[in-house]
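Record type: ASSEMBLY
Status: queued
Input:
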Amino acid sequence: KNQVEQSPQSLIILEGKNCTLQCNYTVSPFSNLRWYKQDTGRGPVSLTIMTFSENTKSNGRYTATLDADTKQSSLHITASQLSDSASYICVVSGGYGGATNKLIFGTGTLLAVQP
Amino acid sequence: EAGVVQSPRYKIIEKKQPVAFWCNPISGHNTLYWYLQNLGQGPELLIRYENEEAVDDSQLPKDRFSAERLKGVDSTLKIQPAELGDSAVYLCASSLVVGGLTDTQYFGPGTRLTVL
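Status: finished
Output:
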């Protein structure tokens, strides 16, 4: 069964600290993996996208890694800011190929950055 | 450039009443998605359109849910009659699919539905 699991479910850190969010998936065949940030009351916004051949992708203070062999991804946030407080959703595309790819969403990690 | 527009942002109705949500995708995006998101969960796909054709509606509860995208641009999602369990956020997203490859989905702000 195609699944995306994220950990931890929630996380509280102090402003300025770093943190790492985890994503494990069992989607096959694999096409790409995306990390989205969803602020409360808003729709998800794409942070990074990685294909099979990419093992790291950065977007400002966000760095995503991908290990296609172990089917694991992480999102590292450096020097956290209060505005980083949000839900971070891992989304894996695959299963069918091309434009008919299914997007399998994780349940998200809820991050709270405290002053 | 405007993003994905959804209306209304909030809707409160009594059970058994009908409700409709509207979505206008990013200009030029040929693919439109409707998702349902429960609190603390990731979005779940309800239906995907490529232009005006519904190419994946396998997760749409067709006994009470319906959707249309008549001119391949904006779309309406309807629930009739609504049930208590339909309370959720309904997200619309759009993307540009070219040559069989799916681009990033851009999400609207969602419509928060409360069924009393």
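Annotation: Chain B has a mean pLDDT of 92.
Annotation: Chain B touches chain A through 25 residues (CB under 8 Å).
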